[in-house]
Design goal:
Layout lengths: L2 H8 L7 H5 L8 E2 L2 E2 L1 E2 L10 H14 L9 H20 L8 E4 L2 H11 L1 H4 L5 E5 L8 H10 L2 E5 L12 H5 L3 E7 L11 H9 L5 E4 L11 H4 L3 E5 L10 E5 L1 H4 L12 E5 L2 E4 L13 H17 L1 H20 L4 E4 L8 E6 L4 H10 L2 E2 L1 E3 L4 H7 L4 E5 L6 H18 L2
Parallel strand pairs: 3-15, 5-6, 5-7, 7-8, 8-9
Antiparallel strand pairs: 1-2, 4-10, 9-10, 11-12, 13-14, 14-17, 16-17
Helix pairs in contact: 3-12, 4-12, 14-16
Length: about 425
């Protein structure tokens, strides 16, 4: 595989049209139930461009070996590619050092790592963990587990009917025994872009660290962890054109140095005796065992791909798609948008009067439209809004206007079948 030629090709991506970029994604060019595929489930998992697929194929066919363990050529190739992927990730989020970037299986594992390694050391009886009302289950359940183990309690930053956090009483909530604030950058269920800069600043004013779930933000907007000044930032590869089973926990070194390892095993040690173990330096202290080498290399290739297009350009494109889709659905009688925050990413949750979202999703699939239907692993959000579930269309830069037209046509079929 000519990686140099591939990188030179990526360098020209900023001048390519969206139709040209769309052609990079082979999975999009198929029919589903005799209709062209309109893939609108990107908040669950994005698709991979051919450039990432090719990089994975080359690793498996020409580089596959274990890393940090061998002196032979294949091991050296794999190690170099794996370490380069970490450097790419660090640059992608503007980390001050790549050793602050821990490879994990995804956002869920990253949050669990912080919950166990930070929570068990710094959170105790009668302490408070502050969690926003907009969170995915993966940023709720680990803290409930820690609360049960330590005797800490969870308090919730409330949200309003638009799906925006209510921060009027945040300073009061932060006072006292709060040991951590947990908030997502972008809501997976509603698309709300939270004012995390303000939340972080107000938390730090009271010496409270902040963990940000960036799973829905990192693929869609430029993220600068130094500018945000969060203490932990977590995201997943499979939502940003990379393989499943890989993600990143970024943390400030001052916290990572103090935290105990999450797991024990190979590569996270410097020495082991029967008398005790000396742990490895960052980031390896938190990466026990053989890692997802192919996933990390694929993530590095995905970072190259996204940066070749430009995150600002991606954000503008997706904002345009969201505006077009929102306007189209608002014109449909019997269809209502759920989550109307003033600042939103490309997630559009909606309902059809008298029709369960699962039925909406099934009929749309018959029309070749892939959406998500359910509670989106955010049941407290659904409970707050008084709905059992929503239908959710979520957009990526490789979607085009025809996908939205197909969604609208499919919703006419839903309305016709149910007589709405």
């Amino acid at each position: 595989m000519d990686l140099t030629a591939a990188n030179e090709s990526l360098a020209t991506s900023k001048s390519r049209s969206w139709d040209e970029i769309r052609r990079d994604f082979p999975v999009l060019h198929q029919t589903i139930n005799d209709h062209p595929l309109a893939y609108l489930d990107n908040a669950a998992s994005s698709q991979m461009p051919q450039q990432v697929i090719d990089r994975l194929v080359w690793y498996h066919s020409g580089e596959h070996s274990n890393v940090h363990r061998g002196v032979h050529t294949l091991s050296q190739r794999a190690t170099r590619a794996y370490d380069e992927a970490r450097e790419k990730v660090a640059s992608f989020i503007n980390a001050s050092s790549s050793k602050e970037c821990i490879f994990v299986s995804g956002t869920t594992e990253g949050i669990n790592l912080v919950a166990h390694s930070y929570g068990r050391k710094f959170i105790g009886q009668d302490d408070t963990i502050l969690v926003s009302a907009l969170e995915h289950h993966s940023n709720i359940v680990p803290w409930q587990i820690i609360g049960e183990e330590t005797g800490a309690k969870i308090e919730v930053i409330p949200m309003d009917d638009r799906g925006e956090l209510i921060l009027d009483d945040l300073d009061q909530m932060l006072s006292g025994s709060v040991k951590l604030v947990c908030v997502n950058h972008v809501s997976n269920a509603l698309g709300t872009i939270n004012p995390i800069e303000e939340i972080i600043e107000r938390a730090h004013a009271q010496d409270v660290p902040v963990l940000v779930d960036g799973a829905q933000a990192a693929p869609h907007m430029a993220v600068d962890v130094q500018a945000l000044d969060a203490d932990f930032y977590v995201f997943s590869g499979h939502k940003m054109c990379a393989p499943t089973g890989i993600g990143v926990l970024w943390g400030k070194q001052k916290w990572l140095d103090q935290m105990q390892p999450y797991q024990g095993g190979g590569d996270m040690i410097l020495s082991v005796t029967w008398e005790g173990t000396k742990y490895n330096d960052l980031p390896f202290k938190f990466e026990a065992g053989t890692p997802n080498i192919a996933g990390a290399i694929g993530l590095g290739a995905a970072v190259d791909y996204l940066q070749s297009i430009g995150l600002d350009r991606i954000a503008r494109r997706e904002a345009d798609l969201l505006a077009i889709a929102t306007a189209a659905l608002e014109e449909l009688s019997g269809v209502f948008v759920i989550g109307t925050a003033r600042e939103k990413a490309a997630v559009l949750s909606f309902g059809v009067e008298g029709v369960h979202p699962h039925d909406v999703g099934t009929i749309l699939d018959n029309e070749g439209v892939a959406i998500r239907a359910g509670h989106h692993c955010a049941q407290p959000v659904m409970d707050r809004l008084g709905v059992p579930a929503t239908a959710r269309a979520s957009f990526a830069f490789y979607n085009h206007e025809a996908d939205i037209e197909q969604l609208v046509a499919g919703l006419y079929s839903v309305k016709e079948i149910f007589g709405v």
